[in-house]
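Re: beginner question about structure tokens

> Can someone show what the tokenized structure looks like for a real chain? I only ever see the sequence side.

Sure, here's an example I had lying around. Input first:
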Amino acid sequence: LCKAFEKLMKDKFQMSSIGELAFFLGLQVKQKQDEIFISHDKYVAEILRKFGLTDGNSASSPIDTKKPLLKDPDGEVVDVHT
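And the corresponding structure tokens:
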């Protein structure tokens, strides 16, 4: 099944299978033992270069980065697919 999926993906997209996944459909992928981190860092850097914005100043996020985001147990269920 995995080999069939790999062949299907190779037929549709320019890709190779040479070990641990690092890029997938333009996304950077970092794998650890119990987690996977996906980012667009490379894509964002290319867009910034393309539009001459590499020397821009960054702005800090207004969110508190020391507090984890938790699920609201009393929150209303929302169907995001309709």
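Each token stands for a local structural state, so reading them left to right follows the chain. The chain is about 25% helix and 15% strand.
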